């Protein structure tokens, strides 16, 4: 049996880098040698034992790029040596939701690296229909950023903002990408709310019109209303996942405005809203779970043609052996934006 190095979350707050068998592929699967994997908020939640603890022990990691090293006999879309990424969503394909094209709502919906072993390892396997060739313009590192951007693409479609409409983004981790996407859609103004100086500076560099430091501005709602001619914003996206920020989002929209729910709140979190506001003010809410299908193609195209400059968000790449320490550093140091893990390096690279 061939073995590989993998960072296994054995139990909450415990990662062990050890030898485990290389995944065995069936006739419809593809084996990928991992180049880079971005660390996502959900990897942190899995490590902390707050998300899918019933799936431990697990090799997490889903924002990856790599090379095809083996294909099952039915695989026709990629071949050995291709540079690839993967759509991480796996659904049944036959239920009411799947047949309507709502894969993410399938009762059997699972994600590679969250419910099955992922890419904080030397190798990862994926079903052939999930594997996508990496665009020729893209390097592996940027390629591993397609998955998070695909989630943003899905939210952009849910928000469906019009040219020249105002967009407020709450949160500045993936919020930075939401703000960039809003700028691309022609939104004006684009306002970002956060409290980390470094990330707010990056937001400015990415072209965001106004940043609101929530540790300095006493009433961010009043500030948004002031910045939108006294009306409130056309669109607000919550990209943090806290009930009080969701409540704040609804206080920031104009009558007829829309809140897009993106930030993953705790399973038992509850928010308070007035039903009357949905009637009198005709306010709206859209949910966005993840990127899937053409969201990946759209994300890849925008990255390939540099419509969104994500390099400003890259903080460092660490060897597989430093995965756990990177998780702890991410929790402590809010200046770190995107951290990647690579099984191919033995010394960290800091940008
Ligand atoms: Zn992710
Ligand atoms: Zn289904």
Q: Can you describe what's shown?
A:
This protein has 351 residues and is α/β, with parallel strands linked by helices. The chain folds into 2 domains: 3-145 and 310-350, Medium-chain alcohol dehydrogenases, catalytic domain (Quinone Oxidoreductase, Chain A, domain 1); 158-287, Rossmann fold (3-Layer(aba) Sandwich). Helix content is 27%, strand content 28%. The strands form 4 sheets. Strands 3, 4, 5, 8, 9, 16, 17 and 18 form an 8-stranded mixed β-sheet that branches. A 6-stranded parallel β-sheet has the order 12-11-10-13-14-15, with helices on both faces. A two-stranded antiparallel sheet has the order 1-2. Helix 4 crosses helix 5 (175-184), helix 4 (146-159) packs across helix 10 (294-304) and helix 7 runs parallel beside helix 8 (243-252). The longest helix is centred in the middle third of the chain and has 14 residues, at 146-159. The chain is globular. The model has no long low-confidence stretch (mean pLDDT 96). Bound molecules: zinc ion (2 copies).
Count the strands?
18
The CATH class of the largest domain is: Alpha Beta
CATH architecture of the largest domain: Alpha-Beta Complex
Question: What shape does the CA trace take?
Answer: globular
Helices, strands, pairings?
Elements: E1 3-11, E2 14-21, E3 29-38, H1 41-48, E4 63-71, E5 83-86, E6 89-90, H2 96-99, E7 110-111, E8 123-127, E9 131-133, H3 140-143, H4 146-159, E10 167-170, H5 175-184, E11 190-194, H6 197-205, E12 210-213, H7 220-227, E13 233-238, H8 243-252, E14 253-261, H9 275-280, E15 284-287, H10 294-304, E16 314-319, H11 323-332, E17 338-342, E18 349-350
Parallel strand pairs: 10-11, 10-13, 11-12, 13-14, 14-15, 16-17
Antiparallel strand pairs: 1-2, 3-4, 3-8, 3-17, 4-5, 5-9, 6-7, 16-18
Helix pairs in contact: 4-5, 4-10, 7-8
